[in-house]
Amino acid sequence: MLRVIIADDHPIVRVGQRVVIEANGKCKVVGEADGPDQLLGVLSTTACDVLVTDFAMPGGQQADGYSLLSLLRRQYPNVPVILVTMFANVATLRASFAHGAKAVVAKSASAKELPLAIKAVCAGQTFASECLRVQLVEAGTGNQSHEPQLSGKESEVVRMLASGMTVSQIAAKVHRSISTISKQKSTAMQRLSISTDVELFAYARASGMVP
What we know:
Elements: E1 2-7, H1 11-22, E2 27-33, H2 36-45, E3 50-53, H3 65-75, E4 81-85, H4 90-98, E5 103-106, H5 113-122, E6 127-128, H6 130-139, H7 152-162, H8 167-174, H9 178-192, H10 197-206
Parallel strand pairs: 1-2, 1-3, 3-4, 4-5, 5-6
Organism: Pseudomonas azotoformans
GO biological process, one term: regulation of DNA-templated transcription
Protein name: DNA-binding response regulator
């Protein structure tokens, strides 16, 4: 029986995950957490074979996002981490694998994908939701674990946007034209394979660009 710990700040999501995970009779949820602090506490006292976690779980003392993934990789290198996220894009996939996740499952994915992800990581393989695999093909990328790299100015623009500034405000602050800032934003989103501002802001927060 595989022992699984699940973490998500929404109780109803954890309920659904527990049902899906335990449905085949081969897995047992042995612990739950509603955020990074509680997750680290559960992991310190409960042995498990697989961790299924969201990474956008704000609050508490411990950072979420990619910082949490990196911490989990350092402290629990033998526990494969499956990331379940609503931000299902190539940028999230690449960065998550680069920070130690073994699988990325979209919250919008079919219920059958989570058990498939658990089976894959326990066999030493990686897993990505079908919608993410399609995006990888469309993006023409070969290495799914290669984290996207932004230039210094692109990172600066993304950070300021995510902190609440407008393109016009950024242009005035850094003494560049509005069209230049717009281009840098557009280029950053292309590099990250992100299509919406919401996903861009989520990437910025998960990457530690903004609190």
